[in-house]
Amino acid sequence: MAPLPDYRPKQLSLGPLESEILDLVWELGLTSARDVHERILADLDRELSYSSVTTVLQRLTQKGWLLFCKKGKVIYWQARLTKAEAQAIRSYDQLHLFLQMSNPDLVASFADSLDTASCEQLESIASRLQALKKEKKQ
């Protein structure tokens, strides 16, 4: 997973259409609203107006997920974070929310219901935490 980036969007929560369009921007890179709109309409079962795509791109910019630049008459959009960086931020937030709402006994009780692979992941995390604690003490 990518390290936690220094930059953080103003608002992490996204609606389904915002998430879909952000995924398309990650896939396309620097892209126009027209390109995003055409990609969505490539699915023949979808109907979405060009203005709706533009509105969502603007909303994603206001929330801090996208940047835009104008070249001639065309506005191009790009993500401010990579998909991996966004996943790291979301994971970090979910972990902190979980830890704030849970007490140690509750968290530990989940260990009883985990499969072997999950337990091995937790052991790996615990080892990393111990190594970080040792580094900070030095």
- Gyration radius, rounded: 20 Å
Strand order of the largest sheet: 1-3-2
Catalogue the unreliable spans. none
* Beta-strand residue percentage: 5-15%
Question: Level of helix content?
Answer: 55-70%
The CATH topology of the largest domain turns out to be Arc Repressor Mutant, subunit A
Number of helices: 6
Question: CATH superfamily name of the largest domain?
Answer: Winged helix-like DNA-binding domain superfamily/Winged helix DNA-binding domain
CATH structural architecture of the largest domain: Orthogonal Bundle
Mean pLDDT, rounded to whole units?
88
Order of helices and strands: HEHHEEHHH
Number of domains: 2
Q: Quick one: overall form?
A: elongated
How does the major sheet shape up? 3 strands, antiparallel
| Strand count | 3
Structural class: mainly alpha
In the CATH hierarchy, what is the class of the largest domain?
Mainly Alpha
Could you walk me through the main structural features you see in this protein, from its secondary elements to its overall organization?
This protein is mainly α and 138 residues long. It folds into two domains: 16-81, Arc Repressor Mutant, subunit A (Orthogonal Bundle); 84-137. Helices cover 61% and strands 10% of the residues. The protein contains six helices and three strands; from the N terminus they run αβααββααα. The chain has helices spanning 16-28, 33-41, 50-62, 83-101, 104-111, 116-137, and strands spanning 31-32, 66-71, 74-79. A hairpin with a 2-residue loop joins β2 (66-71) and β3. The longest helix has 22 residues, at 116-137. It is elongated and about 55 Å long.
